[in-house]
Design goal:
Largest sheet: 8 strands, parallel, barrel
CATH superfamily: Phosphatidylinositol (PI) phosphodiesterase
Low-confidence stretches: none
Strand content: 15-25%
Helix content: 25-40%
Order of helices and strands: HHEHEEEHEHHEHEHEHHEHEE
CATH class: Alpha Beta
Structural class: alpha/beta
CATH architecture: Alpha-Beta Barrel
Number of helices: 11
Mean pLDDT: 96
CATH topology: TIM Barrel
Number of strands: 11
Number of domains: 1
Distance between the termini: 54 Å
C-alpha cells in the first residue's frame, strides 16, 4: 500500500512539474497551426536566415522561424551557429565579432550577409514569426533587446528557446508574448556539449515549472517521449514539431 501511495505521489509531483501554462492556450493553438519555414525558405542560391529567405517565405504565405544571437557589441543578429565556420569558413564566434564586421562577410558563397533582427522583422512584414533565442544562463540582455524590437509587430509572433530561463524572463517582463519551450532527446553529436543534467531536465520537460511555456516545440524524431505525450494528452498543450521534411504542414517547422 505504501509503495502505491509513494508511486502515486511521485506521478502527481511529475505532472505538477511538467504542467505548462494554460493562460494563452487558445492563442497558442491558433499560432501553432501555421507552417513555419525553418530559417526562412532557403535554397542553394538563397542562404538560411537571410532577408532573401524571409522575403520568399512571406511571398509564399508561410510563417518564418529564425534564430537570434548577440554580437560582440551586443547587437541582436539573425544567425543559427555559434561560429562562422559552416556559413563562411571562419572559425570565429559570433560573440567575438562586431555587427559592422559581420556585415562585410558573405554567407555560403553568395552576396547575402547576416541581417540585424530589426531588418528581419521589417522584411517579415506581418507574416507569422517564430523567434528562437540563443541564450542560456545570462539571457536578460538578449531577451530585452528582442522584446523591444518585436513590440508592436503587426502579425502573430512568439519566442522560443531551449533555455527555460529565456521563457521565464518573458513570463515576468513581457507576459503578453507567446512562449514556446524547445525540446529534444539531444542524441545528435553536437548535443554532447550540453551538460547531461541539463539535457535530462529539458528532455523530460521538468523545466516547465520554471518556464511555464504556452506551447512546446519538440523534435519530430522524439515525438513519443513520455513527458511530451503527457503534456499533449493531459494538459492539451499546443505543440509544434521540428524539423519536418516533405513540405509545409500545420503544426510544423519545416525544412524546404
Amino acid at each position: 500500500m505504501y509503495i502505491l501511495i509513494l508511486a502515486a505521489a511521485l506521478i502527481l509531483l511529475f505532472l505538477l512539474l511538467i504542467r505548462p501554462s494554460s493562460k494563452k492556450r487558445r492563442e497558442a493553438q491558433t499560432f501553432c497551426r501555421h507552417p513555419f519555414a525553418h530559417r526562412g525558405l532557403h535554397s542553394r542560391e538563397i542562404p538560411e536566415n537571410t532577408l532573401s529567405a524571409f522575403r520568399r517565405a512571406r511571398e509564399e504565405s508561410v510563417g518564418i522561424e529564425l534564430d537570434v544571437r548577440l554580437t560582440k557589441d551586443k547587437e541582436p543578429i539573425v544567425f543559427h551557429d555559434e561560429t562562422l565556420l559552416r556559413a563562411a569558413g571562419m572559425n570565429t564566434r559570433i560573440s567575438d565579432i562586431t555587427y559592422a564586421e559581420l556585415k562585410t562577410i558573405p554567407l555560403f558563397n553568395t552576396k547575402e550577409t547576416i541581417p540585424h533582427l530589426a531588418e528581419a522583422i521589417q522584411e517579415a512584414g506581418g507574416t507569422p514569426l517564430l523567434i528562437e533565442i540563443k541564450a542560456e544562463f545570462d539571457c536578460a540582455e538578449i531577451c530585452e533587446k528582442t522584446a523591444d524590437l518585436i513590440s508592436g509587430y503587426p502579425g502573430e509572433i512568439a519566442v522560443e528557446s531551449f533555455s527555460p530561463l529565456v521563457l521565464r524572463w518573458f513570463a515576468k517582463n513581457r507576459p503578453a508574448v507567446l512562449r514556446g519551450q524547445l525540446s529534444s532527446r539531444f542524441k545528435d553529436p553536437d548535443a554532447k556539449a550540453i551538460p547531461l543534467w541539463e539535457r535530462i531536465l529539458i528532455t523530460s520537460l521538468i523545466t516547465n515549472i520554471i518556464a511555464k511555456p504556452d506551447f512546446i516545440a519538440y523534435d519530430i524524431r522524439n515525438k513519443h517521449q513520455p513527458a511530451f505525450l503527457l503534456c499533449r494528452k493531459i494538459f492539451c498543450t499546443p505543440c509544434l514539431y521540428w524539423t519536418v521534411t516533405g513540405g509545409k504542414k500545420e503544426n510544423c517547422i519545416f525544412e524546404n
